[in-house]
Amino acid sequence: MHKEHHVTSSEIIRDVVIGMSDGLTVPFALAAGLSGAISSSGLVVTAGIAEIVAGSIAMGLGGFLAGRTEVDHYNSELKREYNEVETVPEQEKAEVKEVFAEFGLSKHLQDEIAEELSKDKKKWVDFMMRYELGLEEPNANRASKSALTIGFSYIAGGIIPLSPYLIIDNAQEALNYSCIVTLICLFVFGYFKSKLTGQPALGGALKVVVIGALAAGAAFGMAKLINGK
Questions:
Q1: Cα distances (angstroms) measured from residue 10 to each of 4, 5, 14, 61
Q2: What pLDDT, in 10s, does the model give residues 105-137?
Q3: How far apart are CA 155 and CA 19, in angstroms?
Q4: Tally of domains in the chain
Q5: Span between the terminal Cα atoms of the chain, in Å
Q6: Which domain covers residue 200, as residue numbers?
Q7: 7 within domain boundaries
Q8: pLDDT tens per residue across span 58-100
């Protein structure tokens, strides 16, 4: 039970990271780019909300499809393994022996373990799935949970860079506050993401900030260039 909880938590954290990182960066870059071209915060908010809605759906759908692909792949390999233990059992026993040979077990023990496993087809197939193919059975509900987690994390991240535009009418002025708020959030997000993944926290935080700043700066500069301002 502890192992299952650990895996689920890791997957949720991964989905939050995926959704939040894009949610902070993409709408921030969009708002910065629009601020370089127009002065109305209202237009920035309208475009930003439209992007957040579209982006969260697209990201959530991507997470759903990835989850479904993982389940479909596992089921396909599971079916193949059941077929192989039925049609070529001696070959499958040999593969079991190869696994235990890598652990340094004697030939006698390899033979005994392979024969014992072959008495229970389910356990035999489960063993082959895990140790031959390196596949763990995915949660059937994983795809839907992943889609919702990524989508809502994207929305949560996207609201942050747009929040100053909801208060300040002038887009250029709102951009200044958006930069401050978003870069701080990117730093905090990058810091904790790096801590969770075992990376240097400060270095990871600075990388996230630099990426966000470069994306926003490029969008703003391009808008200014196109407008000739």
A1: 10, 9, 6, 20
A2: 777 777 777 777 777 777 777 777 777 777 777
A3: 8
A4: 1
A5: 61
A6: 2-69+142-227
A7: yes
A8: 999 988 888 888 888 878 888 887 887 777 777 777 777 777 7
